[in-house]
Specification:
mainly beta; 3-stranded antiparallel β-sheet; 9% helix
Length: 138
């Protein structure tokens, strides 16, 4: 089995009270703020700045299918699907990619995996406490 490495990224640009978030893959970025007057941490709220680009997003899955890829789970020894849905290249013997956007894998580029980031904009609130940028493992 050939294993091909991919990478993802999440970029935050902060200018004044404005945030731009560019994301490819399965990172998560959040702005955390407190809307409560007493400023206790138990009242923190969050706004998501990024999207997990996976095949359960209809537009992502459709792009892959239209490009000749297919989306299904890995099969266990009994032939039953397990784990997340993955992008596969027909007649190739390597593990499927569990995201719909990544950088560096030319094999899956041919079946609709793109490196184009999703970009979200956000204006920071006065009560913003912090920003979280995390990989899918967090």
């Amino acid at each position: 089995m050939l294993i091909i490495l991919d990478t993802t990224y999440n970029l935050i640009i902060h200018v004044g009270h404005h945030i731009l978030c560019a994301n490819v893959g399965n990172y998560r970025s959040l702005v955390v703020y407190n809307n409560n007057e007493d400023q206790e941490l138990k009242y923190l709220e969050q706004v998501q700045l990024s999207i997990y680009y996976k095949t359960d997003i209809e537009e992502e899955k459709n792009r892959i299918l239209l490009s000749g890829g297919f989306v299904e789970q890995m099969k266990n020894e009994l032939g039953k699907g397990v784990g997340p849905y993955r992008v596969w290249v027909k007649s190739q013997d390597y593990a499927g990619l569990a995201m719909s956007r990544s950088i560096g894998n030319l094999k899956v580029k041919a079946v609709g995996i793109i490196a184009v980031p999703g970009i979200l904009e956000y204006d920071l609130k006065e009560k913003t406490k912090f920003i979280v940028i995390a990989s899918d493992g967090v």
